[in-house]
């Protein structure tokens, strides 16, 4: 069995940077250190952070002193103001690409555009960007939200960085004939589109796709969707332990992709486990062959 691992599988630049910042804070600070929400959507990596003393706070109201780390998804400006007013030290690990989307949304709002965010309503990055428009932007998840677009001449669009290009394309196609002054900022992170394109290409070449990453990671779930759309049998797992031997029966080529928040050690463990499964398969085939002769 051939195992093909995508070049873009796993940690992106922004998550890698946020993890490094958090590990450094955990190791160097003597007071309490918390991330505001899980730093990344991967329970195993969050567990490792815990070991170096970085705790998890779901809300700024839960922290009375110490340091708070803003994760790569970013937050609304009021959250940082609130933390600073409470006397907390704020370490902002917002990904620079997310920062760009926040700034563009703010500028569009200031220039009088009705801002539309092409993204997931419940995603923290989108909640953060909304804060940069004084909560005035409208989130468009899919076509069912098109009816929310007001009848106005000035519309500005930005995208959640992990959004797929087809969602943005659909929205722009809808707006083009209606809006005179349409400004579109494609703020999709190239890492995401590269990873998605690579996953689709891999899915075409293999008999089975394994998608590694947190079940609560939107971009990992999207990767699994993309692989399924390509018609290949796909399993989404968080860790190597979840891989089941029978998935690999009659499989000649298996592809691996992983979400932006999946650490490298999880990918390595999955490859190792698949190699073991392959070895077990080969042994069974050899024994069966010997019994026949
Ligand atoms: Fe940043 Fe792109 Fe990752 S926006 S957090 S580098 S997916």
UniProtKB/TrEMBL annotation:
Primary role: Catalyzes the conversion of 1-hydroxy-2-methyl-2-(E)-butenyl 4-diphosphate (HMBPP) into a mixture of isopentenyl diphosphate (IPP) and dimethylallyl diphosphate (DMAPP). Acts in the terminal step of the DOXP/MEP pathway for isoprenoid precursor biosynthesis.
Protein name per UniProt: 4-hydroxy-3-methylbut-2-enyl diphosphate reductase
Binding site for isopentenyl diphosphate: 41, 73, 123, 217, 219, 261
Family designation: Belongs to the IspH family.
Binding site for [4Fe-4S] cluster: 12, 95, 189
Active site (UniProt): 125
Species of origin: Halanaerobacter jeridensis
Full-sequence portion shown in this chain: 1 to 293 of 710
Protein residues bound to (2E)-4-hydroxy-3-methylbut-2-enyl diphosphate: 41, 73, 123, 161, 217, 219, 261
Origin: domain of life: Bacteria
Amino acids binding dimethylallyl diphosphate: 41, 73, 123, 217, 219, 261
């Amino acid at each position: 069995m051939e195992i093909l691992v995508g070049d873009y599988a796993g940690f992106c630049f922004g998550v890698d940077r946020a993890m490094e910042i958090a590990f450094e804070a955990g190791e160097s600070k003597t007071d309490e250190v918390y991330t505001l929400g899980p730093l990344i959507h991967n329970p195993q990596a969050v567990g490792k952070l815990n070991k170096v003393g970085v705790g998890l706070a779901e809300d700024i109201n839960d922290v009375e002193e110490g340091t708070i780390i803003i994760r790569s998804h970013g937050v609304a400006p009021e959250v940082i103001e609130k933390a600073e007013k409470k006397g907390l030290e704020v370490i902002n690990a917002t990904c620079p690409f997310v920062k760009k989307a926040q700034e563009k949304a703010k500028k569009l709002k200031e220039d009088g555009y009705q801002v539309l965010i092409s993204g997931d309503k419940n995603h923290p990055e989108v909640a953060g960007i909304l804060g940069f428009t004084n909560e005035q932007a409208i989130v468009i998840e899919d076509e069912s939200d098109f009816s929310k677009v007001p009848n106005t001449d000035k519309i500005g669009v930005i995208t959640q960085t992990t959004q797929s290009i087809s969602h943005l394309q659909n929205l722009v196609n809808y707006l083009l004939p209606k809006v005179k002054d349409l400004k579109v900022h494609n703020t999709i992170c190239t890492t995401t589109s590269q990873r998605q394109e690579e996953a689709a290409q891999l899915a075409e070449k293999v008999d089975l796709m394994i998608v590694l990453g947190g079940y609560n990671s939107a971009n990992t779930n999207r990767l699994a969707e993309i692989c399924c759309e390509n018609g290949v049998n796909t399993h989404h797992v968080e860790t190597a332990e979840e891989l089941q031997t029978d998935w690999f029966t009659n499989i000649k080529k298996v592809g691996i992709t992983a979400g932006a928040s999946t650490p490298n050690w999880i990918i390595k463990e999955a490859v190792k486990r698949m190699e073991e499964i392959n070895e077990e398969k080969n042994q069974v085939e050899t024994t069966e062959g010997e019994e026949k002769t």
